[in-house]
Design brief:
The protein is an alpha+beta fold and 273 residues long. The chain has ten helices and twelve strands. Keywords: ATP-binding, Nucleotide-binding.
Length: 273
Amino acid sequence: MLQQLLSNSKIEENSAQKAQIYTEEELNKATNNFSESNVVGQGGYRTVYIGTLANPMVFAIKRSKVVDRGQIKQFINEVIIFFQIKHPNVIKLLGCCLETPVPLLVYEFITNDNLFHHLHDEGFVSSMAWKMRLRIATQTDTALAHMHSAPMHIIHRDVKSANILLDDEYTAKVFDFGVSRLVPMDQTQLSTLVQPTLGYIDLEYFHSGLLMNKSYVYSFGVVLVELLIGEKSVLMDRPEKHRSLATYFIPLLEEVRLNKVLENRVAKEGDSE
């Protein structure tokens, strides 16, 4: 099915990128047969490996842990979505391998981990200057706005700090389009199975199942709050009604008490400007 889509002339003509087809043998060799020592990321259903070709070119390979119709559909969807996008703040999909039960996806390799780790891991906490945080927020917003301005809107559906990668210069790269959807410009909502990430999900979407063109705004808003106060999207040690970062932050905003919760470096450097 994916081979047919990639060879379809209409998709090729409208694509922002062109697909390179890799063989399974090439990717096995590049990753030392998908050795555990090449693992650079893990998800519930996917593993990401670093690979090196002879040119030499370093890249990342996303491989499904599960072989079922749902995973095949998500990987195919991700390829179709990516080939509609060309933007400096969206990670580049270089190609794929169609010889495996679930296609293997090959991306540019981003060396500096993701925004979640820089904000919340002990080794990174408070290392990000205010101007850098502001630039990352602006770049991510620009990428999301670009996707929503296309003739077929691309709704990410899983905007979160872990899906914003950072390169060596801390340039933001939006990642992971497996659950994204293409929505025609004249269509304002889409009924779809909710794909929640705890703490980031738009509550209206969660309760109604109606995916709106701007459903991502809520999720991106949570990322902005993470950048401001350095807290995770969900904290179980808070009172139940404030465990969600959004429900914790909104009253503080309404009561003009942000100075009490801003991350120390943000408060200090923000005041100096």
